[in-house]
Specification:
By secondary structure, the protein is of the alpha+beta class. It contains 4 helices and 7 strands. It has a 5-stranded antiparallel beta sheet. Strands 1-2 form a two-stranded antiparallel sheet.
Length: 148
Amino acid sequence: MTNAKVIEKNDDLVVIEVDAGYSATFLELPGSYSPESFFKATEVVEIQKQDCHTCPHASSSKFDKIRKGVSEEGKTHDVLYGRVIGTNRWEVASFMYEKAEWSDEEAKEHCKSHGGVAFEKAVEKVEEVLDTLPTNLAAKLKELLGLG
């Protein structure tokens, strides 16, 4: 049986020592998460471009694993946590905002005020862009793109 105990805990760090034939394993979690609440409140995800505005907090190449949780402070948005390569340190990697719930400006302002290093507007679907064009131009582009 493995014995584990919390040996240090503060606002930014939870250090757990695990005795399982190894010297020690350390786990650093963001914010006020306990290990149990972090892994219950998040799920492993693969990053892919979605129909969302994104607010990266660090380069995705910094992380080897991503987990997704949901922030309900104010308007709901997804929070992606990344595990820093070669460590057991988890930190905020990015926020994701559903474009149906967040305007470009709202998401951009929230990103800026919460430590984002960049802002990426949601990718528009081709059909949505074409619907904003004059009818004759939209019809020609649809024909050229094979969208009928």
